[in-house]
Every structure is written in structure tokens, then in C-alpha cells.
Amino acid sequence: MDDKQKEEITISNFNTENFEENEEEKIDIDINSYLKIGQKAYEVWQYQENCEEENQISYTPPLAKSCKKFIIFIIFNTLTLGIINIFLEWFPKLNLYIHHSVSDLNSASNFGIFSKNNDAFEIVEKNLIDLPQIDYNSENSIIKKFNLNIEPNTNKLILFEYRYFKYFYLSLKDNFEALSYYIKTTQKNILENFSKGLTSNEVLFMQKIFRKCDIEIEIDSWGKILIDELLDPYYLFLLYSLIIWFCLRSYIYSPIIIGLEAICFFLSVREQYINLKKLKELSRYSLPVNVYRRKEDDDTIEKSLINSTELVPGDVFEIPENNSEMPCDAILISNDIIVDNSKLTGDFHPVIKEPLEPIEELFNTNRQGSENNILFSGTKILYIRKKGNSKTKGIVFRTGFYTVKGDLMSGVLNSDEEDENFKNDSIKYIIMCIFTVVSYLITLKFLIVDCDYNTHDLIFFFLGPYNKWSKSLSSDLS
């Protein structure tokens, strides 16, 4: 068997369930002319199940920082007194040409993200993960249990994070995919093979792949929010309008507008900062839990008390007691539980969750109906109906932003489409204003030569008809 046939077999054995190849348009932006021979922009072939279109990636070129461009930027930044930073804030794609150069995958330090949302652009950091050695071929390996879309015998992963989700590079496909995993097997198999817990090596492997079992939201400082808001094109457009009002001698109206806008500006920044702090406090939750894990040598199960932030998919743990919240999405494997899902769904009616049964019925976490056996992160435990002295256990399935609660939080944090549209409209108005001023300055020279009026009167004539000179001129012409 030659190498080509071996590669085809390897690809065919690699799990591709729920894989949908995106038939994207060909890359037709300036990036084509910017790429050099041997370089390419990578596509993303697979996303999270509920990934919105504005969070999807059109393509991502690998980038490396350029010292030559950095020196040129410092010079231009000094000559323009920092004004160039305003344009970098308005047009993020300029960072691709000013700070970075497109490079090959191995030497890159960052990735440029061209999203499908109005061609928005963002630069993210490239990460390398060294994975511990695990058995990829065993039927009971953590890879096959959770159908992780990680290539067999991978020791090092190239990835980046974009809007709280991870994207891995797959060498066999020569493209990126979002981290994807699911459980599809019989209920009996889950109770027999999943309920024993993970080994320390498997725990380390899952910790490398996933974030902590917590929804960590990074918020900007009050000063950073203030500066970002101040650089918004709307306020420069407002400044342009105020200059015109002053030139029109509106000495009372202009200060009133300035005062009102200043009050609204600081109230808006304060409200934005407070809302982000509340969202961060609302999203974070942790508590001590008992977890069951296996020893590497003899497969004996040990019980230990850890913080819920240390849980990883595959862990077996005791469900917290009444009036506690679930720290993750988990599959219930013992006892019935009555929960309150109102925090996620708004439905105040109690819901009964039932454990899996030792039967040959197929259980698929991606299929509707499986939610009857899944406890979702953020739900409140109202009552546990125990059978004798048995412990109420669950298998961790999703953590962090991959949970239902995390998906809701990421949707709130990434809902910036309306803000982008307003920002783009403001930039268009500013460009029109600049064009108007330049056109006026060009024609001003000829008007001064051809007319007997002085420059001061001409300026007020172009600013508007609400001054004494324009009124007298109108009467003279009539």
C-alpha cells in the first residue's frame, strides 16, 4: 500500500460527523495581492452548532510582526501627533498593513480574522499546545468517547481563540475547525464506560483542550471604555458641527449642546461599565464538588473534593445539593432531580430530569429529546429524589462558553452588528464633511480674486444663510 492510499484511509477513518464543508466565495479582497508565494489564507470548515453568521470566519491569514513596519509606524505616529491611531481604530484592517506581514503558518505569531459580518477584521494571538500522550486507538480513549475532532497521534496543536471559542488547525485537511465534540452511543455503554471517571493523564489532556469550567468574561477598564467611546466617529462629527455653530455666532446654543452631550457621554460610559461588571458577576459561578477519578495503574476510583472550576468534560461528580446551581452541562446517571430552568428559558415551571437507563437505546447529545437527561449550567437544583443512600452523580459534558448558559452569554457579548452599522454611517458622514471642507478651500481662492468681499464674509456665506452679511447680500441681489 503506497503513502497516498494510507493517507486516504486515515482521512476516511477520521471522524467527520456533522461536518459541513462551507462553499465559500473565492478570496477576492486585497489580501490576495498581499500574500506571497508559499503563503495562504486558511478557511474555517466547521463551526459550533449554534454559531451565528456574524461570528463565523470567512478566512484567516497567518501574520507575523514586522520590525520595519513598526519603525515606520512610530515615525508617522509622531508626525501626525497620534492622529493615525484614530484611523486604526476606525479601520482595523489597516493593522494588517501597518503592524504585520502575512507569513507561513509555522513562523506566524498571530492570525487575522476576516469575519462574514460586513468583512469585520480582528487580529488574534496564535497559541501552541503540547498534548500529553494518550492512547488514540483504544475504543475507550477520551478522543473516541467524545468524538473530538482532533487528528490521531497529535502531540502539538496550533489554535487561536475568537470570540471565546477555539479553532484548531488540522494538517490532513489543511484548514481550521472549531472545537467540536459530542456523545453518540447507547445509554448502557455510557453507564458502563463513562461512569468510572477519568485518569489524571486524561484530565490533563482535557484541561489543555478546554477552558476552565467557568464563564470568564474579560472587561475593559473604565478608562479604556472612555477612550474607545471618545474615538467614536459620532463625536468627531459632533465636534465638526459645533465648530460650524460657533462660526455662525451661536454662542448660547453651542455651549448648551456641548454640556448636554458631555453629560450624556459620561452617563453612557458609566452605564456601559456597570452593565459589563454585572454581566461578569452574573456569568461566574463556582462551588466545591466531589469528583470521582481513576488511578492510572489499577483503575481504582478515588473520590476527592475540588472546586467546580477544575471540572473537565468526562469527569464524574456528585450533583450539588438543593438550592445550588449547576456549574456545567452534565448527563444525569443516577436519581431524579427537579430543577428550575427559569434563568435560561424564562419558564418558571419546575422540570423533572431523569437519569440514563442501562438499555441499548441510542443516546445522542446533538439530538432533540436528550435534554430530558441533561442538567444545564445555570439551572437551579430544587429537589433530589434519592433511591436509598445512592449518590446523585452526573457526567460533565460541556463547560464554560460551550454550555447553554455560555452560549447565551457569548451571544450578548458579540451582538455588535447595530453598533458597527452606526459606526460605518458616522465614518461616511465624516468623509463627506472632509470632502466639503477641501472643496470649499479649493474654491475659496478663486472667489477671493473674483469678488470684492473680504475673506471673513466669504467664510460666513458658505457656513449658512443665518448671518447679517448673507441677508444684506440677498437684498442687494433682489
- Give unreliable regions as ranges: 1-30, 462-478
Mean pLDDT: 78
The backbone outline, from C-alpha atoms, is: elongated
Number of strands: 20
Question: What structural class do you assign from the helix and strand content?
Answer: alpha+beta
Provide the β-strand percentage band. 15-25%
Q: End-to-end distance, in Å? A: 97 Å
Largest sheet: 9 strands, mixed
Structure at a glance:
By secondary structure, the chain is of the alpha+beta class.
What descriptors fit this protein?
16 helices, 4 domains, disordered N terminus, elongated, alpha+beta, nine-stranded mixed sheet, Calcium-transporting ATPase, cytoplasmic transduction domain A, 38% helix, 478 residues
Written overview of the protein:
It contains 16 helices and 20 strands. Helix 9 packs across helix 11 and helix 10 (233-247) runs parallel beside helix 14 (417-450). Helices cover 38% and strands 20% of the residues. With 478 residues, it is of the alpha+beta class. The protein has four domains: 15-181, no CATH class; 217-283; 288-405, Distorted Sandwich (Calcium-transporting ATPase, cytoplasmic transduction domain A); 422-478.
What's the arrangement of secondary structure elements?
Elements: H1 3-13, H2 31-34, E1 44-46, E2 57-59, E3 62-65, H3 67-79, H4 84-90, H5 94-98, E4 100-102, E5 110-115, E6 121-130, H6 142-145, E7 156-162, E8 165-170, E9 175-178, E10 184-186, H7 187-194, H8 200-209, H9 222-230, H10 233-247, H11 253-283, E11 288-294, E12 301-307, E13 316-318, E14 329-332, E15 336-340, H12 342-345, E16 351-353, E17 362-364, E18 374-375, E19 380-385, E20 393-398, H13 404-413, H14 417-450, H15 455-463, H16 468-477
Parallel strand pairs: 1-9
Antiparallel strand pairs: 2-5, 3-4, 3-5, 5-6, 6-7, 7-8, 8-9, 10-17, 11-12, 11-13, 13-20, 14-18, 14-20, 15-16, 15-19
